[in-house]
């Protein structure tokens, strides 16, 4: 599979304007392979872009890969057996392993000097530390020479364990073992967007800047999305609504899609966005119901996402489409995909897209399977049979892939069907 290198006058103009106004796009943040095609308009000339508001830093941990602890018992058993074998080869006085990032070594303290011991199993890295010692990302912190970084506070052992139990979906035993808990927190899941528990506050001028920039680009269709902002009182819903309303004022004929987070299932937040004047309300379930816990952040779940899509259908004006997307290749089975499609359709969702999960880096969740083009086509045909108004399915398809093309095409077909019905009735 190959994609054309991004280029062209329209692509260059959009990129320059983004830099000038300090705006972000999920196209760039997520390293979308279709960026050049969408920004330039591709074969149809219908240019689309996905603007990311509310900053470029997310409060969720979908970029923190957590293996399926508790789900795959064989893997779990093999891990602990391997860890025990590794520990047996270490002298008795050096068996307290605390913290680290599993990048290839175990660091132990002996005679006030660090000794490096290599291991073949999980390549753990840890340091000896008394329980009362302050910690930072699982590493020893010395009071006289404290290293600071990433804005994290200096915590005691007990405080650090409590923090992990609160912020991460792990057991107390894993939180107590700093080496293992660091492994669970270290690598990334599927998302390439930056994360933080305390991201910078939103720019109050962003809605106006975004509307001004989009109106000047000459786009026919725009997708507005955002990171999760669980730290805000309204979770960013007001920011979304204001951006859509300002854009509608400047360019009433533009088609607008809002790809929103789950707002933690808050009904008032969903209503605020759904009634802002958009044409498509999109929220991604990301994967099948059975893999939600291992792929998404623990604060997100299938039921909550379904509730958000149902509420959007309830509050949005007639004619507003609802849309969701699913990544394939995360370990799902065909039966699980079909079952998920049935539940999504039962929630009244109009549009669904399927794309191949591609690993952004070696730190991210590995690809379980590369789905064949034939399988993607089968899912597309099945979705049409189920009653979805539109199904985009293919290895390179992403949530907003060719969004403007399919929407405009659907509108033209609907208009033709209506005009044909009127002509027949007049005869």
TrEMBL record:
It catalyses: [[Fe-S] cluster scaffold protein carrying a second [4Fe-4S](2+) cluster] + N(6)-octanoyl-L-lysyl-[protein] + 2 oxidized [2Fe-2S]-[ferredoxin] + 2 S-adenosyl-L-methionine + 4 H(+) = [[Fe-S] cluster scaffold protein] + N(6)-[(R)-dihydrolipoyl]-L-lysyl-[protein] + 4 Fe(3+) + 2 hydrogen sulfide + 2 5'-deoxyadenosine + 2 L-methionine + 2 reduced [2Fe-2S]-[ferredoxin]. Its cofactor is [4Fe-4S] cluster. It is an enzyme of class 2 (transferase). It is found in: Mitochondrion. Residues 160-389 form the Radical SAM core domain. Its EC number is 2.8.1.8. One of its GO terms (molecular function) is 4 iron, 4 sulfur cluster binding. One of its GO terms (biological process) is protein lipoylation. GO terms for cellular component: mitochondrial matrix. It comes from the Eukaryota. Its main location: mitochondrion. Binds 2 [4Fe-4S] clusters per subunit. One cluster is coordinated with 3 cysteines and an exchangeable S-adenosyl-L-methionine. This is Lipoyl synthase, mitochondrial. It comes from Triticum turgidum subsp. durum. The lineage of its organism: Eukaryota, Viridiplantae, Streptophyta, Embryophyta, Tracheophyta.
